[in-house]
Design a protein that fits this description.
Elements (H helix, E strand, L loop, with lengths): L7 E7 L4 H15 L3 E6 L15 E5 L12 H7 L13 E8 L8 H12 L3 E2 L4 E4 L5 H37 L4 H36 L35 E5 L19 E10 L9 E7 L12 E4 L5 H10 L9 E6 L17 E3 H8 L8 H8 L5 H11 L4 H9 L5 H7 L7 H7 L6 E4 L10 E7 L2 E2 L9 E2 L1 H9 L1 H4 L17 E7 L14 E4 L6 H16 L8 E7 L11 H6 L5 E6 L14 H6 L2 H10 L3 E7 H20 L3 H13 L3 E6 L1
Helix pairs in contact: 4-5, 8-9, 18-19, 19-20
C-alpha cells in the first residue's frame, strides 16, 4: 500500500520547573481525541528517540532558565546539535514544531527555545507549524492555548504530506516492478478525501466540546447578585457561557499509609544535581532601621568544615521548608491532622492511563506525610489550570464547582489571570476560597511542583574572609488582601528570619560576649556558580557597578576581593572602580555605610549614592534613582566602556531598575558617540555579546 493509518508524532519536552512537562502532557492527553498518538519523552532521554532517523513530525516544548539558558534537561541535547562538524543537511528529513516558554521580564526571552529552533533550522530541519513563544510575564496560556488548538490540523496535514511522499516513492517502486498504475490511482483518491475528513474532524471535535459543556454546566447555578467579579464570583458573560474546559488529567499516584516506624531521608537526597552542605549561621545583622519599608538582613555562614567553594559574583541555593503552621493548616483541611507523622509509600497507580507515569523525583518513595508537605511540595505554588481542573472533581458545592470550571476554562482565561495568577493566589488560598473542595493527597503530589531551593547572591570574598559566606536579603512580605485571608512572609526569607531571631535579639543564655552563638542553627545549601558575573580577569581593567538596595550584595564581595588583592599584590596595576548605589532613605536603609572604608583605602575609586524618598531643600533637586545619577557621569561611563574596554555590572530589580539603567546607557552611548539610538542599542548588544555588560537581576 502507498500509505498506512499510522498517526504517530514524536513529542519532546525540556523542563526546569515542570511547566514544559505539564504542557507536553496536555498535548499528549489531547492527541488521542484527535486520532493521533504522541510518543512523549523528556529531551534528555536520548536513548529513547533518534532525530537522525525520525520520519514522523516532531513537537518540542522547551523552557528557558537562568540568563537565557536551555533547561538542565536539555543541556546534552543542545551540546549534541551544536557540534560544528554536523553538515547543513543533517536534519533535512525532519519536520518539527516548537513551543518555547519564557519570561519577557528577562533579557533573553525564550532563548532556550530560540537556540534549539535556530540550530535545527541551520541543520536543514523544516517547520511544519509556526514556532510559538509563550510569555510567563503576561500568562503562558495566551500563546499556549491557541498554539495547541492549531497544532492538530498542522500535524494531520504534515502526516498526510508524509504519506503522499511515501506514496510517490512507492509509485516509483510499482513502475519499476509492474506496468499496472491502477493501485496508485485509488490511493490518490483516498488521500484527497482524507484531508477533507481530517478538517471536518477538528471542527466537529471543537463543536462537541462546547456542546457537552453547555448541556452539563450552563444552568448549574443561579446568577450571582454581586455584579463585581472576584475569585469566587463570576458575572456575565462568563457566568452564562458554555465552557471549553481542559480534559481531566488522569490520576497516576497512589499513596499508602504505613504507620509511624521509620526514618525520613536526608535533605541532601532532595538535591539531585549538586552536593548539599549543612552549615551553621554564625552571625545575623539587621541592616535596615525598624521604620524602613523593607527589612534587610545579612547572614554569615561558616563553611570552613566543607569543600564549598565560590567566587565573588557567584550565587548559592538554600534548601528551605514550607511554613510549619501552613503545613498543619493543610493537614487539617485534608482531614489528616492525626496522620502527619505517619510514613507513607508513594507509588504509581496500577492501570493509570498516564503514559510513562513515574513517581516524581522530588518525592521520596517512603517518608512521613509531614516530610513531603514540609520539604518536597511547593504548597505556596500558584495552581495551574490543569490543577484547577482536577480540583473541580473534588468540590461538592455546585456554585463553587461551576466557578472552578470557569477559572480553568478558555472563556474564564482573563479571570484566571486576574484573580489567581496576577494576585499570586496559592493553593492554600484557593482551598480557603472554595471550602467544599477536599482534594486527595495523591492529587497534591501529582500537581504541586517541587519545592524549589531559593537562590541568593554571595556577598563576601573567600579571600577576604576565609571559611565564611555572607549573603543579604529582604524579608519578603505578602499583605492580606481579598484573595489572601492572612498576610504571609516569603517561604525562605520568613523561615530564615525566624531561624536567626535569637542572633538578632540575643540574650545571655544563647550568646557569648562577642555575639557568637554556641548552638548555631544550621541551614542546608548547595553551590550555584555563575559563569560570567565575575570580576574582570585582568585587574587593570576598569569596571562600573550598579546595585541599589540589596542589589549591592555581590559588589561587597567584589570590593572585599579587590581590597585583598591590592594588599597582596602591591606591584599590580588596578583599574578604577565605580559604584552607583541607591535606596529610599539615607538614615533607614543605606545598607552598607562602610562603603566609605573602601573609598578611603582606594579599593573603590568613585561612590555615587542617591535616596529616592528623602526630601531636599536644594535649588536643584538631587537625582532620585541610580539611572538618573548615571546620566550625570555620561562622559566617564562612555570612556570606560568604549575607550578602556571596561565592564558594566548591574544587580537588582529588572523591571523598575535594570531596564531604566539600560536605557540610560543607550542614551549615553548615543550622545557621546553622536550616533542615533538604534546604533547605540547595537553597541550595547555588542557589549552584552562580549560579556562586558553583565546583569544579575530578578523580577
Amino acid at each position: 500500500m502507498c500509505c498506512d493509518s499510522k498517526r504517530r508524532f514524536l513529542l519532546l519536552y525540556a523542563t526546569q520547573k515542570g511547566q514544559a512537562k505539564a504542557i507536553a502532557e496536555e498535548i499528549w492527553q489531547q492527541a488521542g481525541a484527535h486520532g493521533l498518538e504522541a510518543d512523549m519523552h523528556c529531551i534528555s532521554e536520548m536513548d529513547e528517540y533518534n532525530l537522525e532517523t525520525e520520519k514522523d513530525p516532531v513537537v518540542i516544548v522547551i523552557s528557558t532558565t537562568g540568563t537565557g539558558d536551555p533547561p538542565d534537561t536539555a543541556r546534552k541535547f543542545v551540546k549534541k546539535i551544536q557540534d560544528t562538524t554536523l553538515p547543513p543537511d543533517h536534519f533535512a528529513h525532519l519536520q518539527y514544531g516548537l513551543l518555547g516558554l519564557g519570561d519577557s521580564e528577562y533579557m533573553f526571552f525564550c532563548n532556550g527555545g530560540k537556540t534549539v529552533d535556530r540550530r535545527l533550522q541551520e541543520l536543514g530541519a523544516q517547520h511544519f507549524y509556526d514556532t510559538g513563544l509563550a510569555d510567563d510575564c503576561v500568562g503562558l496560556e495566551l500563546v499556549v492555548d491557541p498554539w495547541i488548538d492549531g497544532l492538530w490540523l498542522a500535524l494531520k496535514e504534515a502526516l498526510l504530506m508524509q504519506k503522499e511522499k511515501e506514496g510517490m516513492n512507492n509509485v516509483v517502486d510499482v513502475v519499476t516492478s509492474s506496468p499496472s498504475p491502477a493501485p496508485c490511482v485509488v490511493d490518490e483518491l483516498n488521500l484527497s478525501s482524507e484531508i477533507q475528513n481530517l478538517k471536518l474532524e477538528d471542527e466537529g471535535a471543537r463543536s462537541s466540546d462546547v456542546l457537552s459543556q453547555k448541556l452539563d454546566d450552563i444552568n448549574l447555578v443561579a446568577p450571582a447578585r454581586n455584579t463585581e467579579p472576584s475569585l469566587v464570583n463570576s458575572v456575565p458573560p462568563v457566568s452564562q457561557s458554555a465552557l471549553n474546559i481542559p480534559a481531566l488529567p488522569p490520576e497516576y499516584i497512589e499513596v499508602q499509609f504505613q504507620g509511624t516506624h521509620g526514618k525520613n531521608p536526608h535533605l541532601s537526597s532532595l538535591i539531585l544535581e549538586e552536593t548539599a552542605f549543612e552549615v551553621p549561621v554564625t552571625k545575623a545583622v539587621q541592616l535596615t532601621r525598624e521604620d524602613a519599608i523593607k527589612t534587610a538582613l545579612l547572614l554569615e555562614l561558616d563553611i570552613s568544615d566543607t569543600v564549598f567553594d565560590y567566587q565573588p559574583g557567584d550565587a548559592f541555593c538554600v534548601i528551605c521548608p514550607n511554613n510549619a503552621n501552613e503545613v498543619e493548616e493543610l493537614l487539617h483541611i485534608l482531614g489528616l491532622s492525626e496522620k502527619g507523622d505517619d510514613f507513607v509509600c508513594v507509588k504509581v497507580k496500577q492501570g493509570t492511563k498516564k503514559k510513562g507515569a513515574s513517581r516524581p523525583q522530588h518525592i521520596p518513595e517512603r517518608s512521613t506525610l509531614k516530610f513531603i508537605l514540609t520539604w518536597c511540595l511547593e504548597i505556596r505554588a500558584v495552581p495551574k489550570k490543569a490543577f484547577v481542573r482536577a480540583l473541580v472533581e473534588c468540590t461538592s458545592d455546585a456554585g463553587e464547582k461551576r466557578r472552578l470550571q470557569e477559572l480553568c476554562s478558555r472563556q474564564g482565561a482573563s479571570d484566571y489571570m486576574r484573580f489567581i495568577r496576577d494576585s499570586n493566589v496559592c493553593f492554600l488560598d484557593l482551598l480557603h476560597a472554595f471550602p467544599s473542595c477536599r482534594p486527595s493527597l495523591n492529587l497534591l503530589i501529582e500537581h504541586l511542583p517541587k519545592l524549589q531551593a531559593r537562590s541568593y547572591s554571595v556577598s563576601s570574598s573567600n579571600l577576604y574572609q576565609p571559611g565564611k559566606l555572607c549573603f543579604v536579603f529582604n524579608i519578603v512580605e505578602f499583605p492580606a488582601c481579598p484573595t489572601r485571608p492572612v498576610s504571609r512572609k516569603g517561604v525562605c526569607t520568613g523561615w530564615l528570619a525566624e531561624l536567626v531571631a535569637p542572633l538578632l535579639h540575643p540574650n545571655k543564655n544563647t550568646l557569648d560576649t562577642k555575639g557568637e552563638s554556641f548552638s548555631a542553627e544550621k541551614i542546608p545549601i548547595f553551590p550555584r556558580p555563575n559563569n560570567t558575573f565575575h570580576l574582570p580577569a585582568d585587574p587593570s581593567v576598569p569596571f562600573i557597578m550598579v546595585g541599589p538596595g540589596t542589589g549591592i550584595s555581590p559588589f561587597i564581595g567584589f570590593l572585599q576581593h579587590r581590597q585583598k588583592l591590592r594588599e597582596q599584590h602591591t606591584d599590580w596595576e588596578f583599574g578604577e572602580t565605580w559604584l552607583f548605589f541607591g535606596c529610599r532613605h539615607q538614615d533607614r536603609d543605606y545598607l552598607f555605610k562602610q562603603l566609605r572604608c573602601f573609598l578611603e583605602n582606594g579599593t573603590l575609586t568613585h561612590l555615587k549614592v542617591c535616596f529616592s524618598r528623602d526630601s531636599s531643600t536644594a535649588e536643584v533637586a538631587p537625582p532620585k534613582y541610580v539611572q538618573d545619577i548615571i546620566r550625570l557621569y555620561a562622559k566617564e561611563v562612555a570612556r570606560i566602556l568604549l575607550e578602556e574596554k571596561g565592564y558594566f555590572y548591574i544587580c537588582g530589580d529588572k523591571k523598575h531598575m535594570a531596564d531604566g539603567v539600560s536605557d540610560a546607557v543607550v542614551d549615553i552611548l548615543s550622545m557621546e558617540m553622536e550616533a542615533d539610538r538604534l546604533e547605540a542599542m547595537k553597541i550595547l548588544a555588542m557589549l552584552r555579546e562580549e560579556k562586558r555588560y553583565l546583569q544579575d537581576v530578578w523580577s
